[in-house]
Write a structure and sequence with these properties.
about 140 residues, mainly beta, five-stranded mixed beta sheet
Length: about 140
């Protein structure tokens, strides 16, 4: 399988900077729901280490455990599932954030998605041959 189109983010050099993200201010998701954020991602040349403001941010918390085991130059499907925290969190942002990624770094990503479930969802079911799935 191939990814037909993607967004490319590049930091040419230096340390992190603010406003390096893609996502939503998701508004109102009732407390009794679950939120899944998923994306296809490919890190060119190297996978940067986890850092304070790099990952999938939901309700003000950055989730970066999905970086473990990723390999450079390969498309990976990653996701996080979190319970809704409307009104109880510091932020209602749902973001793929690169704010603290040091350069040089290029990342391609595609199909960034936000889903809402009535109960904790099962893991996604994917087919795609050589594509690998990491949670």
């Amino acid at each position: 399988g191939c990814i037909p189109s993607s967004i490319e983010w590049t930091r040419r050099s230096g340390e992190g900077e603010a406003w390096q993200w893609c996502g939503w201010h998701h508004g109102h998701v009732p407390l009794d729901r679950w939120i899944r954020v998923s994306v296809w991602v490919k890190f060119l040349d190297r996978v940067p280490p986890a850092s304070a403001d790099f990952g999938i941010r939901v309700h003000g918390r950055v989730h970066s455990g999905w970086l473990d085991g990723l390999t450079p130059d390969t498309w990976h499907y990653v996701w996080v599932d979190v319970p809704s925290a409307e009104g109880q969190a510091s932020s209602d942002d749902v973001l793929l954030t690169f704010n603290s990624v040091p350069g040089p770094q290029t990342v391609r990503f595609a199909d960034l998605a936000l889903e809402v479930f009535n109960s904790r969802p099962l893991g996604p079911t994917l087919t795609g041959g050589a594509l690998e799935m990491f949670h």
